[in-house]
């Protein structure tokens, strides 16, 4: 399976570099691809090797007066814990974590997806999405503790009728840009900046 993912990464590299990369995580059939398609409508370029590889959606949009190339990566059939290639996470600026309100197991599995994502992307912003509220709007009255536990922004959405879909993608894009512009400090970054600045040698 890794060779398929590596091929997907190679395909992505053949496009002009993106400005922002957003990844989607969650169990199979929670509606990740439908959310992306609902957001983008027909304005995107899709790259996919097979139903078992990754799908990358390339989208150009205007955000805050700036034209941006956005890459949205979907697992597309690879939904298995500890089975995603590190390249899926590499260079990500934000994550959308999705569960299906009609299937409790997809909610229970969030902790596994979140743990794996944080192993590769410890600092990127993450937005939690409860999809398929159109099936039963009463779920919007329930309290879901996972988001509170990890300090995640939480939204109810419906890929079927479009409820909140554009809102959550635009919000996530904003968070991704903020992360890119102001990445958290790290020991490695501090060392590299120190090596680039030789003024301290003369102090």
TrEMBL record:
The organism of origin for this protein: Stentor coeruleus
Listed Pfam families: Ras
Any one GO molecular-function label of the UniProt entry: GTP binding
Keyword Chaperone: no
PANTHER family: PTHR47978
Protein name: Uncharacterized protein
Keywords: Nucleotide-binding
InterPro entries in alphabetical order: P-loop_NTPase, Small_GTP-bd, Small_GTPase
UniProt cross-references to SUPFAM superfamilies, sorted A to Z: P-loop containing nucleoside triphosphate hydrolases
């Amino acid at each position: 399976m890794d060779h398929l993912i590596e091929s997907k990464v190679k395909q992505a590299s053949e496009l002009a570099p993106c400005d922002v990369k957003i990844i989607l995580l969650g169990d199979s059939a929670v509606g990740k691809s439908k959310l992306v398609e609902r957001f983008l409508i027909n304005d995107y370029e899709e790259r996919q090797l097979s139903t078992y590889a990754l799908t990358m959606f390339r989208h150009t949009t205007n955000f805050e007066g700036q034209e941006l190339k956005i890459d949205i990566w979907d697992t597309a059939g690879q939904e298995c814990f500890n089975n995603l290639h590190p390249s899926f996470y590499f260079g990500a600026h934000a994550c959308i974590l999705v569960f299906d309100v009609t299937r409790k197991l997809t909610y229970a599995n969030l902790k596994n997806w979140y743990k794996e994502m944080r192993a590769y992307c410890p600092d990127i912003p993450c937005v939690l999405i409860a999809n398929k509220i159109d099936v039963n709007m009463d779920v919007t009255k329930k309290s879901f503790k996972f988001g509170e536990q990890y300090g995640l922004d939480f939204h109810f959405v419906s890929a079927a009728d479009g409820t909140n879909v554009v809102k959550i993608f635009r919000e996530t894009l904003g968070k991704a840009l903020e992360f890119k512009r102001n990445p958290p400090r790290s020991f490695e970054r501090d060392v590299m900046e120190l090596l680039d600045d030789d003024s301290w040698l003369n102090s």
